[in-house]
Amino acid sequence: KSFTAGDAETFNTQENTFNFNSSFTVSSVDITESTGSSKFLGSVDQGLTQTSENNTLTLDSVDGQSSFVSTKISDEISASFLDSQIDFEPLEASRSMSGRVVLLTNSGSSGGTRHENIEMTISKDSNNNVHIVADAKYGNGSTIKRYGGYVNDQKAYYINSDIFGVKVEEPTPSEKGFLIAVPDGGYNQADEFVMYDENDNPLTSNDDSSWGYWSGKNSFNDGNGIVSINPLATWVAGVKTSTAYMDGLINGANQSLEFNGKVLGTIGYRDSILMDSTNKVRINFDIGGGSKNMTGNMQFKSATSNLYNVDLAVNSDNITNSSFTGGFKPANNPDAATTGYIKGEYYGGSTLKSIGGNFQVNQHGATANGVFKATKK
Description:
This protein is 2% helix and 50% strand. By secondary structure, it is mainly beta. The strands form six sheets. Strands 8, 9, 10, 11, 12, 13, 14, 17, 18, 19 and 20 form an eleven-stranded antiparallel sheet that branches. The longest helix is centred in the middle third of the chain and has 9 residues, at 243-251. It is globular, with a radius of gyration of 20 Å.
């Protein structure tokens, strides 16, 4: 199956074959070599499948009572890694990116969630062979997992700055995993932010930031045993905007910047947030004259959840020349309490093209975790 993305770049069949633009069907098993019934999970442009549900996650309450809640999770959720490529966008210069990851882990009958960091470099050697290295790291700098390899060794692929992938650099005999970047949408001729063009091909944005998924079966020891990285784990990274440029914006002429985008993530451990019309992020950044103010809204849902609809609550003191942090409040009831947080950074190198980061929202009795990415209008 071939499809087109961006400026007529063409892609060949993926290891996990599926129709990119329609129908919730999967015709083959992913590289984890799992068995079971295949069905599509998430939206068509997320490239996610689920091959079996064979584990039960048990959660203890923390209210002093011995109550338990069991829900299905799976080590066998998988993403698609591009098997071959027909055309690509030449890599003109190396790119170093950094950002945030959501680490979802599965181990037997338990699961966990952490928000950590990522560093990534895409470069080429003297023979123009593209090399990709991505390091997911804890806050203390220690490495969670390294992905790395060359395209000509089939350890990686590179179509453009928004569509690429790389496998675990030095996997153990029982380990398999990869990191992929997926299309991020863009503005159409009507100046609306959409995921597809008029021919239903996925759009990508030249905004110096990328996002996607990362995974690993039998990936690392978390101190309690070997765990797997759930392929619903997400990341976002970009070329950070210089602090000097941001200082110029903060102290320059007053202006209002608008950013629009989407989120990738989950509600709980395996309920994928849909990439549909309800999935939207809008952030307004009023800046200049030494002041700064950020407002906005985030909406999303899964196939089984209610709509999450929250407004940003960002104090101006928590907006710096390198990042911003804040919380949320329900859009339909601003006085009600909603726990959670958002952490974002600016991307664009010598200018400001996009913003992205991680978030957590507790609403409707369930916790959503993921990354967001929004492109300047």
